[in-house]
Amino acid sequence: MELDVDSTSEPMETRDPPASREKSRHKYHVQPSSLGGDILSRVGSPSLSMSEAFSSRSASLYQDEDANFAVQSERGCGITCCWSRTPRLRGGESYPLLSRRWKYTSNETPRSLSQKFRPRSFNDMVGQNVVVRSLLGAISRGRVTSFYLFHGPRGTGKTSASRIFAAALNCISLEEHKPCGLCRECLVFFSGRSRDVKEVDPTRVNRVDRMRSLMKSAETPPVSSRFKVLIVDECHLLDEETWSTFLNSLENLSQHVVFLMITPDVDKLPRSAVARAQRYHFQMLKDSDIAVRLRDICVQERLDFEQVALDLIAAKSNGSLRDAEMMLDQLSLLGKRITVSLVYELIGVVSDDEMLDLLDLALSSDTSNTVIKARELMRSRIDPTQLVSQLANLIMDILASKSEEDNSEARKRFSMRHASEADMQRLRNALKILSETEKQLRMSKSQSTWLTVALLQLSSLENSLGANDSKSSCRSAHEKDGDFSSTSSAAERESHKHIVPCSCGKLHQLGIERDWEATLESIWDKATQLCRSNSLKSFLRKQGKLSALSVNQDLAIAELQFHHRDSVSKAERSWKLIASLLQSILGCNVEIRINLVLYAPTSRCARLRKLSFGLFNCSRRIQQKKAKSSLPYGSSDSDYSDLTSEKPMIKDKVVLPESCHHRLEMVRALRSAEGNVLSMGTTSSHRSLLQDNAAPKTPGCGTESVKKEWESNHDCGFSQDWLRDQSATLCWRTPVSPRRKVPHERQRSPLVGWVLPCGTAK
Ligand SMILES: Nc1ncnc2c1ncn2[C@@H]1O[C@H](COP(=O)(O)OP(=O)(O)OP(=O)(O)O)[C@@H](O)[C@H]1O
Ligand SMILES: [Zn+2]
């Protein structure tokens, strides 16, 4: 079966392939109106009316059925598209399309600005000077090869350039500048009636036999032109076998055949194909080039505009002139002056200044304002995905110190406030978080929640980063006091920089005061929101609290607080689920520790309003599972039970003593008395820790007396068995020494007792 591309007849309706139908719809629509313009009248008419040619929408080379493949294709007459969506003329008149000053008459309605301002000569091409010069050089030097590959980002002019190049190859003008748009060949080409230039649909030719037919038909000499040009847009859609067939035949092609292949993604092509092509890379256009082109269009279209608005459009179009033109198109439809705020409003981005505000708040751990600002932005204008990407772009710009002179006042202020190396490090980390968040958002229904959580994490990580530099007097005070840090190993302190809940209610890391309670509250809130089991959710919200959090790159240790032993038991049973929820929010492995905080009811404890017991929950690290981490937990009974099947650490039978402090001492004494307790420590360091802590310090609290007391109170204390069971994982520390003067603020601190995981207690 031979494909005779030269035989032509009536123009026929193009049948767009499914893959390119969208594009074709957009690109090749014909407008029912007429052409005009001075230059048009100066030029002679081609034999057929140009309108007919344009309205033909040209011939498709291939039809669906194999049987009539060649027959149908014989009706092809040239490029498959109407080159410039030129309106159909009714009166048989015909005009050349190409003109530097070519204009639409008032009754012509091109579908879009992009369509209307499609380049028609190399001079119209923006920002691809090297490509243009090289292509012109090939023509003028007569060094035209048979296989060209145009690749690069979308909307940068590949398709336009391929058509211009095809026209230039056949232009018979003696002028250096080609295509002239006026010669016979140009007229035929731009009228869409060229029988020697065709656009080939890659999905229809994507079969070995069809490609073979195409190559064979290409061998027949051109009808009237010098070159037979075949343009294959989206050529990455061709299979390897089709490519092989093409490449095999390529060498035997005669000199007059030129293939122009176009793709936005050269990596999808077989290497052998790429290697044999003359490659032309179309780069992303510079913002400044785009802005100039937009200005040109605005002037021609008599649009009222602010130059900064055009600059903004250019900056937001990712180097694609088509994208920029489409934005301008939409704005022009509003019939208003094109201003910066209109651009922001229409394209759903927020101003850099507002973004900087948000970033500033997030980095400064101003939790409530961060949340308020993020919600405000999302409510009014921007969707979370867009916000994440805009924020990431902004951070990248800041890190790259992009165009200092273009910087707004807000950007300068931000840069001054965040200029140190540590700040840069924080921003790099923020980028990491945002990139993870972007992935999460794609799978999540509650995008705004995730985004808010991500913003809150920016500050959490910040704490982990700069803790070494911490000069916080408050933190030093903690360390000197031997507060919880005294129970932490040096290694743990090194690897986990705590968000330190200080007695004054603030975090003081990096010397910045933080509203830590609000941060923790918000994290807890988000975590529990993810829990779909309503009963567990309400239990965690009412009874539980995230009282502290320490984060390093890989692991977060979350301290949870409950006020009743039953709650502790329940929480213990659900520890896996709780850890999973927190893991989802924090995006890293989580260890949880469950603390019991009691309100001391007796006169002995009257001085202390609260006492807490830190119970180490042997929470193993949970490997992050990508698929699961993004989903809400506890969504069904089954996954709930799965997560809660772990044996509870605290048995129901445990009854806490009336006098917590006293009992605590008693327990320690008991441990000391029971030699086996020490031998049950998991590590030598753990044993020594137990030993240290187990020595009774209270006068009159000797082993015997404690035992007696224990026995007399066994119904309201810990069972010995239980204590033995737990001794490997349970460590105690005196909340407050009775002889030590308790500072007033410390009495108010909810975190009096801390416990180490055995593994890290060294
Ligand atoms: N370099 C450019 N110079 C002038 N106009 C351009 C340029 N790039 C894009 N445009 C504008 O964008 C529209 C689309 O361009 P074109 O189809 O040539 O891009 P493309 O790179 O082939 O994109 P795609 O890969 O999506 O097909 C053109 O009609 C034109 O208005
Ligand atoms: Zn010409």
Automatic annotation (TrEMBL):
Ranges for region Disordered: 1-37, 468-492
Compositionally biased tracts (Basic and acidic residues): 12-22
InterPro entries with a match to the protein in the record: AAA+_ATPase, DNA_pol3_clamp-load_cplx_C, DNA_pol_III_gamma-3, DNA_pol_III_sug/sutau_N, DNA_Rep/Repair_Clamp_Loader, DnaA_N-like_STI, HLD_clamp_pol_III_gamma_tau, P-loop_NTPase
Coiled coil, from the record: 417-444
GO cellular component, one term: DNA polymerase III complex
CDD domains: HLD_clamp_pol_III_gamma_tau (cd18137)
GO biological process, one term: DNA repair
Molecular functions (GO terms): ATP binding; DNA binding; DNA clamp loader activity; DNA-directed DNA polymerase activity; metal ion binding
The UniProt record lists the keyword Transmembrane helix: no
UniProt-listed Gene3D superfamilies: 1.10.8.60, 1.20.272.10, P-loop containing nucleotide triphosphate hydrolases
Keywords, alphabetical: ATP-binding, Coiled coil, DNA replication, DNA-directed DNA polymerase, Metal-binding, Nucleotide-binding, Nucleotidyltransferase, Transferase, Zinc
Catalysed reactions, semicolon-separated: DNA(n) + a 2'-deoxyribonucleoside 5'-triphosphate = DNA(n+1) + diphosphate
Record-annotated AAA+ ATPase domain positions: 144-285
Keyword DNA-binding listed: no
EC number, as in UniProt: 2.7.7.7
Chain ranges passing through the membrane: none
Family: Belongs to the DnaX/STICHEL family.
Protein name: DNA-directed DNA polymerase
